[in-house]
Amino acid sequence: MNHFIFVINSAFQDFSRNKGRTFLTSLGILIGVLSVVILIAFGLGLKKYINDQFQSLGSNLIRVVPGQILKGGSFSSTGSLSTIRFDAKDVARLQRVRSAKNVIPVISKSITVSIGKGTEGANLYASTADVFIALNLKAKYGELFTKNDVEKRSKIVVIGPKIAAKLFTTEDQALGRNIKVEGQSFRVMGVLDAKGGGGFGGPDLDSFIYMPHTTAQVFNPDKKFYAIIVQSKSDIAIADAKLELKNALLKRYKEDDFSVIDQAELLGAIESIFGMLNTVLVAIAAVSLVVGGIGIMNIMYVTVTERIKEIGIRRALGARKEDILMQFLVESVALSLLGGLMGLGLAYIIVYFIHNFFPAYIDVNSVILALGVSSVIGIIFGVFPAKKAADLSPIDAIRYE
Question: Can you give the residue ranges of every domain in the chain?
Fold first, then answer.
């Protein structure tokens, strides 16, 4: 034990004599650990963000969409090739399903919105009044359109806070104002409370223009629906509700013509995509660790050359090959761990500031991975120079100039 403590003290004394070289040698490991830990933290934060977004929509939502968009738990590349589009008959059929609480047809398309000379791009989300209940959307200013507005085909809209902020100085100034959607005038009757989302697999509900689907038929002359959202009854299992909806649609369509997807399936598919992407990015960042390890190996070779006479004297005084091997191996691991600890510390600082804007976080597994990988790299790339030092002949080492 005393011998091991001596070796560690000797290593750190050598580091203190060459502070600049020690830092530069550890820099490769620092950058590698920093990159890997930051990417893992972003991956964890992204997973939490997506989970929070889906939980805010409720667990009893089922989406009915054209085509088979999921296969084997992942998005299918051929899902959009389906030629069917849902219509009023499909909505009526699903409304008769026992497990369906609300059946909400959706028309969705990209549009331009303008007021005066200002024009912004937005997304139209035309549906029934139940869409606000299903998606847990609430009015911050004004009010939401009602079933009566849908029946009357009222030319009114409810807008998300992001589009309101773009079109007006403040969100509340939008109330009662007329805006033009694709050149047609509509009155703003409400501005939604911020929901968040968008950019990570889910729709940005705060940038949508909400309109009665009957009114939106002016932009949708064939009266077809992009999708149908079904809110199932709380006392019905999601699996049972999905089966009932699927059986209802099979009376008119083939099984490959449509998908019935619940929140958990959609969440799993999105997470699998980002999980794979994050794994690739972490693997790329890990290259820095290998480069850092090579840097440590090169410096350790230089160190062995510089200390050949010291090694010879130690061998002459009774040090075994194993002692010399351990000495240089410990120095290599210590250099690598030092870089790992600095990288981990810097990652914590960066994540601390980022956390105010995005829920990235560092878990225990990341810490263990960072320090474990640092130690392994120190061992792997330290073995060769350490063995070279241990194999030196004592007499030749003492004579070395």
Answer: 2-52+275-399, 106-224
